[in-house]
């Protein structure tokens, strides 16, 4: 223990659990790469104004949860609370949308920051993998993204998750619905803050988790009953494409999500083993966002999946990922001369692509073999002066216990052959 500990609401990723995080990031990004999404990385901080305009002035993220700072040069910056606004900003800045190949498909992976009340599954520093498809309005694109997220969860072995789906309408039908909803909400018995929300962003009142509010929402007008023909047909096509792909979903007319920029398709993946922080990922279409941050009209769709909560979901389902072994070979030198010879061998094995570790610190045979076993290595290479004088080393299979002498100059090939014959898990 040092004088310091990780800041409130954060935690450190350390082995062996950290390898599960890497595997989750990999599992989420693999289907994206296969579908033509290119990797993008943006700064960890942006102008506060980007999020204020992009995410929405009235959202909790902007009003309560942003880590903001003023630089010595006077710039107002915020640690990024989400990825979409930054990715769109970067794509517009690089003119990716003008290269003639729409949609621009991008994926990202990184850390995000929200000053939230910490609890299990809700942290102040968390990790997301996200995907955005910019510049195209096509129900197949919405369906593609949802299918890719679904396939990513499935590839991890997850089963107990559900997909909630809704349409928030567009600039034609949403304002009409908004007015109808406001009229309904104004007649309710709501606290001061919620009343304010009714005026600024009434749809988000539907998302209020408090029972006292939910009770009063019975009979509230629903977006699905106000969708214009174009939105209705668009949504129907998304639903059909998902069904054809074997992706089950539940229609959730109250799903509005916490960010202001969504239009038409919105969705959320929830996991039933996570308690109150059950959303493992979510996203939707955001046709107006580009204009909100000063760009051209660029209808787009995207999602972000939470890595931390996906790891918790794996735990909740008791899933142990089959992670590749960290070490294939563990070298154990007996004596000073062997130390030098085996160290060279270790370097050679690594250069040949074999994951190899070494008994450092002049350990005795017994301790060194303990380390070899603990490393999870498939083979131990043991050598003393006598072996080296004969130009050999002892190759011990740590699974079967068999041991044989192998010529020093044949070791790399022998190890590679035997590893590929029976790859360890
Ligand atoms: P959002 O940008 O709020 O739609 O979040 C997308 C996903 O990121 C959620 O479904 C969560 O899995 C994850 N996430 C959001 N906020 C947090 C947080 N404070 N701690 C951990 N994960 C989070």
Task: Name the features.
425 residues; alpha+beta; BirA Bifunctional Protein, domain 2; Rossmann fold; 2 domains; eight-stranded mixed sheet; five-stranded mixed sheet; 15 helices; 16 strands; 37% helix; binds adenosine monophosphate
What structural class should be given to the helix and strand makeup?
alpha+beta
Helix content range of the residues, please? 25-40%
The set of bound ligands, ions and cofactors reads: adenosine monophosphate
Beta-strand portion reads 15-25%
CATH class of the largest domain: Alpha Beta
What is the annotated CATH architecture of the largest domain?
A: 2-Layer Sandwich
**What is the overall pLDDT average?**
94
Count of beta strands: 16
CATH superfamily of the largest domain: Bira Bifunctional Protein, Domain 2
Q: What is the name of the CATH topology of the largest domain? A: BirA Bifunctional Protein, domain 2
The poorly predicted ranges are none
The tally of structural domains comes to 2
Radius of gyration: 27 Å
- Apparent shape: elongated
Q: How many separate helices?
A: 15
Describe the strand arrangement of the main beta sheet, using strand numbers. 1-5-6-11-10-9-7-8
Describe the sheet with the most strands: 8 strands, mixed
Kindly report how far apart the N and C termini lie: 34 Å
Pfam family, one: tRNA-synt_His
InterPro entries: aa-tRNA-synth_II, aa-tRNA-synth_II/BPL/LPL, Anticodon-bd, Anticodon-bd_dom_sf, His-tRNA-ligase, HisRS-like_core, HisRS/HisZ, HisRS_anticodon
Subcellular location: Cytoplasm
Domain Aminoacyl-transfer RNA synthetases class-II family profile: 1-324
